[in-house]
Design goal:
Blueprint: H1 22-35, H2 47-54, H3 58-70, E1 74-77, E2 81-84, H4 92-119, H5 125-146, H6 153-168, H7 171-211, H8 215-238
Antiparallel strand pairs: 1-2
Length: 239
């Protein structure tokens, strides 16, 4: 993958594209059904059945399943076909630990770049486009929270975190986060009724540090934010 979201990166299932392909549209639909529980773990995903449902040939269906497999949401086995993966409970702690490192670094880099943007006579259009989208995402999340539409927060939460990584300007950090983004959103959706109302306002605190160019603070706040989500997720199983 050579480009970040906003430039039609082919592997960014949850990122925006100007002209999404049929495979990406199908992948997004299936992904949302997995995350919301409409497709339970272990559910078979026959290419022929999906092709009929989406009124396409097997080729875009196969490509969609490969995209979802790269995010860990779908498993494909020889002679058995594809099915919804089991919940990522066994590797959840590893996922959170990886996030703490990746997203802490991304928040620091984003804050450092914020200072650079403030000093430039000509703005970086990609940077400002991502920053404007963060404002829109935060507004949408605030509205969803005020209207008790917590089911919308999983998608908005992942989009926020991807955009912060995009602001960092690091292709490596963005690639790493994309590889686990599907599982992150899945884990978040399982705990959104408990953690969602507390987690969402913390995004504003993260962006305050980023916009002010406070790199160390941005990293610390982001790491604390992800750590709280990790702890809340595991507390759910202790109750």
């Amino acid at each position: 993958m050579s480009e970040m979201p906003g430039k039609d990166a082919p592997g960014a299932v949850s990122g925006p594209t100007t002209h999404p392909s049929a495979s990406m549209v199908i992948a997004r639909r299936i992904k949302q059904e997995i995350i919301t529980g409409q497709l339970a773990p272990g559910t078979r995903l026959p290419e022929i059945t999906l092709g009929r449902r989406f009124e396409v040939s097997r080729v875009p269906v196969r490509e969609a399943l490969k995209l979802l497999e790269s995010e860990g949401l779908v498993e494909s086995k020889p002679y058995s076909g594809s099915s919804v993966s089991q919940l990522p409970t066994d590797d959840a702690r590893d996922l959170f630990d990886v996030r703490i490192v990746i997203e802490g670094a991304a928040a620091r880099r984003a804050a450092e770049r914020s200072l650079v943007q403030a000093q430039q006579s000509l703005p970086d259009e990609n940077w400002w486009a991502a920053r404007k989208e963060i404002t829109a995402v935060l507004r949408s999340g605030d509205e969803a929270l005020s209207e008790d539409r917590l089911e919308d927060l999983a998608r908005l939460n992942m989009r926020f975190h991807v955009l912060v990584t995009e602001l960092s300007g690091s292709q490596s950090l963005w690639n790493l986060l994309q590889q686990i983004s599907g599982k992150i959103e899945w884990l978040y959706s399982l705990n959104v009724n408990i953690r969602g109302s507390r987690a969402w306002p913390e995004h504003h605190e993260i962006m305050a540090a980023v916009d002010a160019g406070r790199g160390d603070d941005a990293a610390m706040i982001m790491q604390r934010h992800v750590t709280r989500s990790r702890d809340s997720y595991f507390d759910m199983f202790r109750q």
